[in-house]
Amino acid sequence: MEYVIVFIILISTLNNCQSRLQNGTKCDFNNQCICVMEQFLFYVDCTNGNITNTSIFPSNTNVLILQSNNIMHLLDRSFENLSNLLELDLSNNKLLKIDSEAFIGLSNLKELSLGGNELNFTVNSFHINALAPLKSLTILNITYQTISDILSDKMILNLHALQSLETDIISNTDGQAFGKGYSSLKQLRQLKAGKCQMELVNNNTFSNLPYLEFVELSKCRIVQFGNGCIFCHLKNFRYLDLSKTVCENNNFRSLVSDFKRTKIRKIKMTRTFFTSAFPPFHLFGDLANSGITELYINKNSFVMAHDTVTDTIPNTLQVLDLSDNMLVQVSYSMLTLRTLNLRNNDLGKVLAKGGYKRYGTIKLQNVDLSNNGIHSLLFIVFEGHSYLETLNLSDNALSDFSPDVSVMIRLKVLDLSKKNKKIFTTQYHAKYFKNC
Ligand SMILES: *[C@@H]1O[C@H](CO)[C@@H](O)[C@H](O)[C@H]1NC(C)=O
Ligand SMILES: *[C@@H]1O[C@H](CO)[C@@H](O)[C@H](O)[C@H]1NC(C)=O
Ligand SMILES: *[C@@H]1O[C@H](CO)[C@@H](O)[C@H](O)[C@H]1NC(C)=O
Ligand SMILES: *[C@@H]1O[C@H](CO)[C@@H](O)[C@H](O)[C@H]1NC(C)=O
Ligand SMILES: *[C@@H]1O[C@H](CO)[C@@H](O)[C@H](O)[C@H]1NC(C)=O
Ligand SMILES: *[C@@H]1O[C@H](CO)[C@@H](O)[C@H](O)[C@H]1NC(C)=O
Ligand SMILES: *[C@@H]1O[C@H](CO)[C@@H](O)[C@H](O)[C@H]1NC(C)=O
Ligand SMILES: *[C@@H]1O[C@H](CO)[C@@H](O)[C@H](O)[C@H]1NC(C)=O
């Protein structure tokens, strides 16, 4: 059989920050800092610079990185001459106190990070007007302070341009978290939790954030989800990340039934379920009219996934990730699905007897069945797979497998490699199969 072996080369891409530093030189005003002019922007990076005050930076600075220094107190007018500043990173300092006029002059600032400090949001720590001058701010990160709390709504009233807020979250037993004033942030699309402890997540929790599109509650500890509307009053709500979220009562049922009334497109619940043998009850049925396109429920403890428990796959779903579970059975009709990831499960036995597909046509383009203890496969497993482009069967126990690829006229990559061997990809020429 004619095939070409393609070696996969892993290219580790440098992040922007590192590459910038490579081209930079020590700043003349402080030799702990690196200065670089790039694409008409003047960057000053003083990461780990042992800096305790902010009185030294040139007024043409556009991006100022003061990550991991020893700044404890931001005095009035700390940045008053930096009107060109677009990004200010004060994360991982020892900030205890920010004075009322500390940010005066930063009317063009777009991005501010205060993450990893010791602010406590009391009058003595964070002046109520401190953020008021930041009229252009679009991204604010204020996560991982010693006390988990949310900026009071009086502190954020002037941030009319804010699009993304990353904050520690705490909610009381009424489910309330964000004060009324938050509803004036009409551009706020993205909410991401840092430290996060919520007693109850219910219709109150996000009611003052009606414009949210992306909600990331990963690693939150949630005692309980309330019945009724949780996200359904958010008109733009499209994306939810609950990865590693711990729900103490393991009651995701009311959350999932709330999906019925949303237009959610993408859900990530990676490492969210530790004790549940099935995906959340009626998950797919409750998503049927949402328009969902991508669902990641990988790295959980699921043993079986089939339509008796979850209902049928929503007819808008394109990507379903069930990898790294303990699945011994998967059985769906998958009329519209493009990508099915079943990597690292225990499907060997069931695939020796039949397939994962129930009735109906199939449009799958990518299937990953690697590491499933597969010894043998019946031809019917791949019946109708005429759109398949990538098939991963690596790390299985297949000794002599020649798939019936005649039906897979679009197949580009078939991975049959085994553990402890150099991983290679076997690339079949589509032309070759068309000719046979
Ligand atoms: C470094 O500077 C050189 C010359 O100015 C430029 O070609 C290159 O793209 C820069 N590299 C990075 C990573 O910015
Ligand atoms: C940091 O600065 C203090 C004084 O401001 C000095 O005593 C100390 O040696 C400096 N540490 C380093 C690593 O430069
Ligand atoms: C600010 O820091 C610089 C060096 O980091 C030091 O020389 C200067 O005395 C400090 N100024 C104040 C007001 O602490
Ligand atoms: C800002 O510039 C003014 C005028 O040049 C100067 O008096 C003032 O000390 C500067 N402020 C800071 C914090 O550097
Ligand atoms: C926000 O700040 C925290 C603490 O410094 C950091 O771990 C996190 O990566 C930041 N978020 C983003 C998106 O950079
Ligand atoms: C909050 O921070 C301020 C300034 O560091 C401090 O004086 C105050 O005791 C702190 N309050 C609490 C409740 O931690
Ligand atoms: C939340 O639900 C309760 C009871 O169902 C209702 O009384 C309350 O008005 C709702 N709150 C919001 C913000 O919709
Ligand atoms: C197939 O899956 C294995 C591990 O499960 C992975 O390492 C490999 O990169 C995958 N092959 C392709 C072509 O994606």
Automatic annotation (TrEMBL):
**Gene3D superfamilies per UniProt:** Ribonuclease Inhibitor (3.80.10.10)
Span of the signal peptide: 1-19
Q: Where located?
A: Cell membrane
Gene Ontology biological process terms, A to Z: monoatomic ion transmembrane transport
Q: SMART domains per the record?
A: LRR_TYP
Stated membrane topology is: Single-pass membrane protein
Say which domain of life the source belongs to: Eukaryota
Write out the entry's keywords from A to Z.
Cell membrane, Disulfide bond, Ion channel, Ion transport, Leucine-rich repeat, Membrane, Repeat, Signal, Transmembrane, Transmembrane helix, Transport
Family matches, as PROSITE patterns:
LRR
GO CC annotation: plasma membrane
For this protein, the record's SUPFAM superfamilies field holds: L domain-like
What is the protein name given in its UniProt record?
LRRNT domain-containing protein
**Which organism encodes this protein?**
Mytilus coruscus
